[in-house]
Design brief:
Mean pLDDT: 95
Oligomer: single chain
Length: about 200
């Protein structure tokens, strides 16, 4: 195997599959290299939580963007991701109330639907939770979880429809460099020249 690609993506988990899809969507020639099979690494062990509670604005914006993809997955990607909107609850000690309020303000500013719950609302949402008065709780009604295998498989199928190539059972054993930059990958089945490599 001696090939050329615009971009080589190392790893065919959910991150590699979605990266391949987005790059192929932009018209790039993409090759994905996976040492086992699609979705076999950490993605296979994922609980696939779709949440938006982050204290960093860029991450919160990315999470909201991702949520909208999962909510409209068949239109955006094609196929099934198994998304289930169950809501997402975040608890912290009462001493961390100011930090929780700051996080919620940041998240709301970027468009995330979230808010603090009163102890009564928390007990209603999570019956049997002890010490509702001793914690501060934030709740995101739109969040939930997906199926990591369905999600990864759908992203990879979409990337393939757009022309991406996937090599399974192919391990990257090294990188090629020229002029101080990466120019491709060396695998157990040959080499792939590329303008960029995403690991």
């Amino acid at each position: 195997m001696n090939e050329t690609a615009d971009v080589v993506v190392i790893g065919a988990g959910v991150m590699g599959a979605s990266t391949a899809f987005r790059l192929a969507e932009r018209g790039l020639k993409v090759t994905v290299v996976e040492k086992n099979f699609v979705g076999s690494g950490s993605t296979a062990k994922s609980s696939a939580i779709i949440r938006q509670h982050y204290s960093n604005e860029i991450t919160a914006r990315m999470a909201l963007f991702s949520l909208r993809v999962f909510q409209h997955f068949d239109e955006v990607v094609g196929g099934e991701c198994g998304f289930r909107p169950t809501g997402f609850l975040v608890l912290a000690s009462a001493e961390q109330a100011a930090g929780m309020e700051a996080n919620i303000a940041l998240q709301r500013a970027v468009g995330i639907q979230t808010g603090l719950l009163s102890p009564e609302e928390l007990r209603e949402l999570a019956p049997g939770l002890a010490g509702a008065e001793e914690v501060v709780a934030a709740y995101e009604p739109e969040s939930g979880y997906a199926d990591p295998v369905l999600t990864t498989t759908a992203f990879m199928a979409a990337a393939r429809r757009l022309g991406a190539t996937v090599h399974q059972q192919t391990e990257v054993t090294g990188l090629r460099f020229s002029g101080g930059r990466v120019t491709g990958v060396i695998t157990n089945r040959g080499e792939i020249a590329a303008g960029a490599v995403v690991n």
